[in-house]
Amino acid sequence: MNPGPEPSDQDLATASSAADRQPDAKAGSGDAKGGPSWLLLIGIALVVMVLVRGLLVQSFYVPSGSMERTIEPGDRILVNKLVGADSIKRGDVVVFDGSTSWAVDDRTPHQDDGLIGRTLASIAKAIGIDVGEQDFIKRVIGLPGDRVVCCDSSGRLTVNGTAVQEPYIYPGDKPSELTFDIVVPKDRLWVMGDHRSDSADSRSHLGDPGGGTVRVDDVIGRAVVTYWPLSRTGGFDHPSQLAGIPRASTP
């Protein structure tokens, strides 16, 4: 049904908050066994993690290779959740909930709705275990109103008629094996993975509601840094040429 790669490369599992370091708890002087003190400290740490995760920063574990080499399988990244619709730029690497924009494979695991299931899922999310949610990570290529076309006579992607150089694309990949010509609807984004030959992105969902685009309101945040493994620690490039193309009028 989808013209692109099979959407088996579910991109992200929601993970822990950026505040996942717990304090070095010690038994209180008033408790010889130390049990209540440990429980109290653990409870405080969990509350802090929930607050930070919900308001400021969220950590994600990336299991797939759809964003190589920008993001490698197994990388853990931090996402800035203080991102408004007007602050999203072309070239941004964003995490979003694709469940409302993209058709979901019915084989995707679902979260238990019971009390125990919700509790276990919350703990799993805090420590970075995949609970089967429909979160994805891609690069923003088209903003609302943009016309995104692939490809021109030189095989390059164009945005509003301007050919784009894409140094972040996985070595050996073409901008796209699939041709398309789309005007991004109001309040939506056209997104693509950097590993174009291994990414089920907007191209793979052209037949879904929104023509493969995702809702701006579904963006969870902007990826800002890889923090693990230590050998790959660093931020993400925001291509100036892509970001500098004049913005089209919102349709």
Automatic annotation (TrEMBL):
Residues 1-32 are annotated as: Disordered. This is Signal peptidase I. Keywords: Hydrolase, Membrane, Protease, Transmembrane, Transmembrane helix. It is found in: Cell membrane; Membrane. One of its GO terms (biological process) is signal peptide processing. The chain crosses the membrane at residues 38-62. It is an enzyme of class 3 (hydrolase). Residues 37-228 form the Peptidase S26 domain. It catalyses: Cleavage of hydrophobic, N-terminal signal or leader sequences from secreted and periplasmic proteins. It holds the Pfam family Peptidase_S26. The keyword Hydrolase applies. NCBIfam families: sigpep_I_bact (TIGR02227). It comes from Knoellia koreensis. It is a single-pass type II membrane protein. Belongs to the peptidase S26 family. InterPro entries: LexA/Signal_pep-like_sf, Pept_S26A_signal_pept_1, Pept_S26A_signal_pept_1_CS, Peptidase_S26.
